[in-house]
Specification:
476 residues; mainly beta; 47% strand; disordered N terminus
Length: 476
Amino acid sequence: MRIPLTLTIVLFWTCFTMFGQNKQLLYDFVEIPQSAMVNPGVDTDFQWYAGVPMLSGVSLQAGLSGISVNDIFSNDGLDINDKIRDRAIYGMNARDELSGTFQIEILNFGFRGKNPDNFYTAGMYIEGDAIGYWFQDYAILGFEGNADKLNQAFDLGHLKTRGELMNVFHVGLNKKIDNELTIGVRGKIYSSIFDFNSTKNKGTFITKEGVNNIYSSTVEADMQLRTSGLNGLKDASDDGTLGSTITKRAFFGGNLGVGVDLGFTYQLSDQLVFTGSLLDLGFIYHSKDIKNYTLNGKATIEGIEIILPDAAADPNEDFWQELVDDVEGFVPFNDNTDSYVAFRPTKLYSSLRYNFGEHVDNRANCACGVNASSNRARAKFVNSAGGQLYVINRPRGPQVALSGFYQRRFGNFMSVKTTYTIDKFSYSNVGLGVSIQAGPVNMYAMADNLLSYGNLADSNYASFQLGLNIISWGKK
């Protein structure tokens, strides 16, 4: 049974697309249309907007907890093998991770309906999401071997990884209930390009003194790697149809799923605002191009047993292959094409914002028609400050980040937001976001962990977001 190519693709994707997911700079940045993508209930005042295709929303973030590139490759006079052993093999633990997402918006637009309290959005974007935890016991076993680790049980459950690439189609409604409450809902269809996951592994590997040989090793495993789409992409690459295969799968030709985003904004007072959102509450049903691998069972092996002089009578006997056959017989290594359901990594955002200072005139129409339930032209304040919470569901439990922020508006031309975030990647993540409105053209750019830019090799986290939109507020 051979899976080296599949494992190679899995490891490559895991290493190449490990990004953080928190978009704390974009969240509740109401001057930017894409803020609705992290809270469909954002309090927006646009008449309509249209994102520039492929340029309206690009985000890329890279994060690694427990170690940095500089920890291994810095010119500090220490032997690199010692640094790998002390800082990586033994310095990291099974909760250290690389994780996250990237997104590229293909289309994104929104418009206000006949009832000005209703704002509709739609579009599509491509997204890649992945996570890989540090396989600590595997690393120790591979680096040190098991000869000096008698009676030590190595945890096979340290192997946890998942990843996916998909195209997402979405349509949403943002509704202003009254002058205090705005709610939003967005439906999604996920069109999967590929998926892999191996997150529920259990088992141990232990070496003890043997009876018939020097050592005996016991393996007890319940492990599974599920994949969807990888074999088909390999075949498409071999016959030169990779591009068309990816395009077909991105437009409903692969495995499909559904999801929903929910959000709200509540005006506690003229200056105090509470918001929240729940994103990607959904799943994908994988039934096409499936290839799963399982390792399930228990076996104790005492190595290759050679009995002399009987062994000399058949010099061509393959003792090593007999050992391999014995191991596979006791711990079956199988594959199947069973369908499976993969749930999306659900995300929760919440914030409490205090507005203060002078007013900035709102450019939106006054909602004075007979169908309008409220005045949506609420004046903005020059200053805003507050805190934000972010939680994402992960295989080893929820991952949490806390942010404090300050936002300053310079008329209707420019708005600047800065954040200070604490999470498992960094306790000193300072971010900066800028939105510029030049007539109908909106441009924004954001970057995280600015204090690390002097030495990116010593950083555990870096990110940026940028976009370009056309916005209209209608006639006064």
